[in-house]
Amino acid sequence: MELWHKKIQFKAIALVICLMAIALFFIPDRVFSQVDLLPKNKIKFQGKIIEDEDISAVGIVGKYILIGADEGNTIQVLEPNKKRSKYRVAGNIELLGKESKAEIDLEGMAVINNTVYVTGSHSSNYKTIIDENNRKNVFRFQLNPETGKLESSIEKASLQTILERDKILSQFANIPYNENGVDIEGIALKSDRLYFGFRTPVLHDDYIPIVVVEFEQINPSDRYELRYVNLDGNGIRDLVAVNDGFLILTDETGTKGSDYRVYFWDGNDDLPKPDNRSAAKLLREIPAKKNTKAEGLTILAETASSYRILVVYDGVAKGNPTIFEIDY
Fold first, then answer.
1. Which of 184, 245, 218, 212 shows the shortest CA–CA distance to 56?
2. pLDDT tens across 30-71, in order?
3. In terms of C-beta density within 10 A (0-12 exposed, 13-18 middle, 19 or more buried), how is residue 232 classed?
4. Which residues pair with 212 in a beta bridge?
5. Helix H or strand E encompassing 161
6. What are the backbone angles phi and psi of residue 262, rounded to the nearest 5°?
7. Residues 84, 89, 92, CA angle at the centre, nearest 5°?
8. What is the pTM for the complete model shown?
9. What span, in angstroms and rounded, lies between the C-alpha atoms of 80 and 239?
10. For residue 201, is the peptide bond before it cis, meaning its omega torsion is within 30 degrees of 0?
11. CA distance 97 to 103
C-alpha cells in the first residue's frame, strides 16, 4: 500500500511539472532572456568605460551587455555580478583594429542571437573627426555568448552609395546633420533585414526615412527599400525589433535636453495611401536630466501586454543605464 501511494505521489508531481511546462510554452509573445533577473529600475556599469559620458549604443548577447560610445571605435563587453545589478568591463572589441585611434561616430547596435551589427552615423561635418569616412560604415561580427569573446572576423560595409544614389536621400547625403543632413542613429534587425533609422533629415510633413536592406546587399546598393515613419516631428535616436514591429526612441531634432519618447511602429511604410492605415503609436515618455540625452535602447523582455527596456544616456558618467516598463 505504501509503495502504491508513493507511485501516485510521483505521478501527481510529474503531472504538475508537465502542466507548468505547457503553461510556460504557451505564454504569448514572451521573450525569455538571461537578463530577466535584472533589478527593476537601475543597474550600474563598472570598470574602465571608454568615453564614459558619450555612450550611444547598447545590446545584449547571452548574459553580457555590450555598449559603445559615439566618439570611440570600440564595443565594450560587460559581465554581470551574481545579482545582475552591476556589469563590469570584461573585454573590448576594436572595430578598426587595436592600433587605430580614429572615431567612427558609433550610433547604433543591433543583436540577433550572437551576431552583432554596429552602425556609424554616415553624417558629414559632425564635430572634428580625422577621417570622415570612418563614420560611414556598418560592422558585423559574432560574439561567443558563453565567454563574451569575439569569435569571427569583423566585416564592414557602407551605406554611402545608397545615400548618394537614392533620389530622396541624395539631397541630404553630404550636408551637415545640423542643416537637416543625413544622420543615422538607430539600427535594428528583423527577418534578416537591417532597418537604419535616421534622426535627420526630417522630410515634408515630418516624415523620417528608414533604409531597409540585408547586410550582404548594402554595397551593391540596388536591393534596398526606403520606408517612412511619422514621429510627430521627432527624429530617431534608436530602434529595436519586437515581435510585431519595432520600438523607436525619439527626440526633437536639434534640441538638447528635449523630450524623449518611445513609439511602437509596425514596420510598414507610413506614407498616406488609400490602403495604408499604418501609423506609429506613442507609448510613453522617457525622462532625461538636463544636458543628458537618451541615446541607446534595447529590449530586455516582452509579454502580451508590456515591454521591458534598457536605456543608456549620453552626457552622464557611465551611461546611467535605466530600466523602464512600458504597458501597451
1. 184
2. 343 445 445 567 899 999 999 999 999 999 999 999 999 998
3. exposed
4. 195, 225
5. helix 160-165
6. -115, 125
7. 135
8. 0.86
9. 24
10. yes
11. 12
